[in-house]
Design brief:
Bound molecules: protoporphyrin IX containing FE
Helix content: 40-55%
Distance between the termini: 65 Å
CATH superfamily: Cytochrome P450
Largest sheet: 5 strands, mixed
Oligomer: single chain
Number of domains: 1
Order of helices and strands: HHEEHEHHHEHHHHHHHEEEEHHEE
Strand content: 5-15%
CATH class: Mainly Alpha
Shape: globular
């Protein structure tokens, strides 16, 4: 049996917080190994980096989610016992619900809502001296997500509800006040959405049968029962919250357009294939999800290394997207690299790898891609704007991260 390299530190929890996104990548480079072992909150943990590690990690026969996601992340980002924590038949049944709303027709409707919201927002921005893009785009996304799912949202509610979704996401790498803000935001959002589910079930709120809210409200689990009010709320939030989270990527897309103006020129020329590559490159290059966790089901061996039952295993999402063996000059922003991409489900994993239905790969990946394409189209062809001097740096030791200024634009004018 081969020996898994062990990190020198007695416990790496503080190093993870201190180093942030590149924590696993840094060590896999210094140990020259795609596998090494650390202790995380006292628990022995195996870290995997790279395509082969990702392929192993996505094998549900060897791994399960039960016990892999810390309670502090469930009580802020995801909700307790939501789809992310389920395994096997229970997971499959729940995942079918999520994937059933990701059809081309359904996504097309969402894009219509979003396009209307882009036009509305651009008009508003023309009346403002300066616009901080990140929070504005999140509000736009929240309006569209609620309209699409069938959740009523009065205009005065847009800002506070969006803030709550933002705080849930912002809590995932935070301790202290950020964690508590995320928890309070989640409990406000859950009571709001529980009320909506109750109204749909009581027929006090009429929503179309094809709508996401209707499907979640009337979804039956493997046992044939409706989800509890709480669980239905958690899963509906698991659709609306991540749509607002695409605001992080849209802000990074705006940053890329600013820092790599040659990409903007090509997008303005209407190159559709390039638009797809650009959106992929934004998701590869800019950091969002750092790592994922799984638990070993039963003892097994891989490449001569022992994986003991119950061991926590982390997959390096950030670093696998920047793996030098897979990506030529990974530190450069070059959308054209996707021309030659092999389409592997394991070397480009910003939203997880493997299979959508049988695995945990992000249910909203296609939605994210379409939303980003639309956003980039509006940023390049639907408006003009200036980018004044500001702090555009994004710290890698903060998870999630964002350009410090939130990306300020001014002199916004609609075009076309
Ligand atoms: C799962 C990232 C947007 C719904 C995941 C996972 C990641 C991820 C890394 C875990 C994959 C795994 O465990 O293997 C992202 C990023 C997004 C995004 C970076 C863009 C900002 C969305 C959207 C939706 C969504 C728009 C829904 C509308 C979900 C759900 C899961 C998930 C339901 C759990 C899937 C499961 O456990 O089977 N996402 N996501 N995400 N995502 Fe996303």
């Amino acid at each position: 049996m081969k020996h898994i390299p062990r990190d020198k530190s007695l416990d790496s929890t503080l190093d993870v917080l201190r180093e942030g996104f590149p924590f696993i990548l840094n060590r896999s480079r210094s140990y020259q190994s795609d596998i090494f072992q650390i202790r995380l909150l006292g628990m022995k943990t195996i870290c995997l980096h790279g395509q082969d590690g990702a392929a192993l990690f996505c094998d549900n026969e060897q791994f399960m989610r039960t016990g892999a996601i810390p309670r502090r992340i469930q009580t802020t980002l995801m909700g307790l016992h939501g789809i992310q924590t389920l395994d096997d038949g229970k997971h499959r049944r729940r995942k079918e619900l999520f994937m059933s709303v990701m059809t081309p027709d359904s996504l097309h409707k969402l894009m219509e809502f979003m396009a209307a919201d882009w036009r509305y927002s651009i008009k508003q921005w023309t009346m403002q001296e300066q616009v901080v893009l990140f929070p504005e785009v999140q509000e736009l996304l929240c309006r569209a997500a609620c309209a699409w799912t069938g959740v009523p949202l009065a205009e005065e509610e847009v800002a506070p509800r969006t803030r709550d979704f933002r705080r849930m996401v912002d809590a995932f790498g935070g301790v202290g006040p950020r964690h508590w803000r995320g928890k309070r935001a989640r409990s406000r959002a859950e009571s709001w959405i529980k009320g909506i589910i109750r109204q749909i079930r009581n027929k006090e709120l009429q929503v179309p049968e094809a709508s996401v809210a209707y499907r979640v409200a009337w979804h039956r689990d493997v046992d044939g029962k409706l989800l509890s009010l709480q669980m239905a709320a958690i899963e509906l939030i698991n659709i609306i919250r991540p749509i607002t989270a695409i605001g992080w990527y849209i802000t990074f897309a705006a940053l890329a357009l600013h820092e790599y103006p040659e990409t903007k020129a090509r997008l303005q020329a209407g190159d559709e294939e390039y638009l797809g590559w650009f959106v992929h490159e934004v998701r590869r290059f800019y950091p969002f999800a750092p790592f994922l966790g799984n638990i070993v089901r039963e003892d097994f061996e891989w490449k001569g290394y022992k994986f003991p039952k119950g061991r926590l295993v982390l997959l390096d999402v950030y670093g696998t997207n920047r793996d030098k063996g897979q990506w030529h000059q990974p530190g450069q922003f070059r959308p054209e690299r996707f021309r030659a991409w092999d389409g592997s489900a394991f070397n480009f994993i910003p939203q997880g790898g493997g299979d959508y239905l049988t695995g945990h790969r992000c249910a909203g990946e296609w939605l994210t891609i379409e939303t980003l394409k639309l956003a980039v189209t509006y940023l390049t062809k639907g408006m003009t704007y200036d980018v004044p001097p500001q702090n555009l740096g994004f710290p890698l030791d903060r998870m999630p991260t964002l350009p410090r200024s939130g990306f300020i634009i001014e002199n916004v004018r609609p075009t076309g």
